Amino acid sequence: MEMVIDFPGGARVDAHFGGFTVMTDQSPRGGGEGSAPEPFALFLASLGTCAGIYVLSFCQQRGLPTEGIRLVQRMAFDPATGKLDRVDLDIQLPAGFPEKYQEALIRAANQCAVKKQLDNPPAIQVVTSIQG
C-alpha cells in the first residue's frame, strides 16, 4: 500500500490513497484554519472507528440490533509530557441489550487492527529522495 501526502496550502496536509483523500489541517492556534481534523485527531479516531467496526460486525453476525449502541472514547494525557497516556473505550449499550453478549463485545473490540498495531508498533523509517 502506498499513500501520497501533499501540501495543498496553508497548514493543510492531505493523504491520497485508494481513490480517497483524507484532509487534515491545524487549528487556528496551531497556524491553520481548522478546516479539517488535525492529524493526531484522525489517529485517535482511527482507533475508535476500528473498534466500532468490530462491535458492528459482532452484532451483525448475531442478528443483534445496533440501534442505540455507541462507543465513547476518552483520552488521558500525561500532564508532564503532554503525551497520550491512556485511551478508554466505553461501549454504551441500550437498555435490554442481552447481558450474555457484553463480555464478548469487549473481546470483539479488542480485536481492532489499529489497537493491535499499537500493542506491537511497527518500525518507522524516514528518508528523503530527490525526484525528477
Describe the structure.
The protein is of the alpha+beta class and 132 residues long. It has 2 domains: 1-37; 38-119, GMP Synthetase, Chain A, domain 3, CATH 3.30.300.20. The protein has 3 helices and 5 strands; from the N terminus they run βββαββαα. The strands form 2 sheets. The protein has a 3-stranded antiparallel β-sheet, with no helix packed on it. Strands 4-5 form a two-stranded antiparallel ribbon. Strand 4 (70-77) and strand 5 (84-92) form a beta hairpin. The protein is elongated.
Structure characteristics:
single chain, 132 residues, alpha+beta, GMP Synthetase, Chain A, domain 3, 2 domains, two-stranded antiparallel ribbon, 5 strands
Computed Rg: 18 Å
Q: How do the strands of the widest beta sheet line up side by side?
A: 1-2-3
Number of helices: 3
What is the level 1 CATH name of the largest domain? Alpha Beta
Q: What is the tally of beta strands?
A: 5
- Which structural category do the helix and sheet elements fall into? alpha+beta
CATH topology of the largest domain: GMP Synthetase, Chain A, domain 3
Low-confidence stretches: none
Helix content: 25-40%
Biggest sheet layout: 3 strands, antiparallel
Beta-strand share of residues: 25-35%
What's the architecture of the largest domain in CATH terms?
A: 2-Layer Sandwich
CATH homologous superfamily heading of the largest domain? K homology (KH) domain
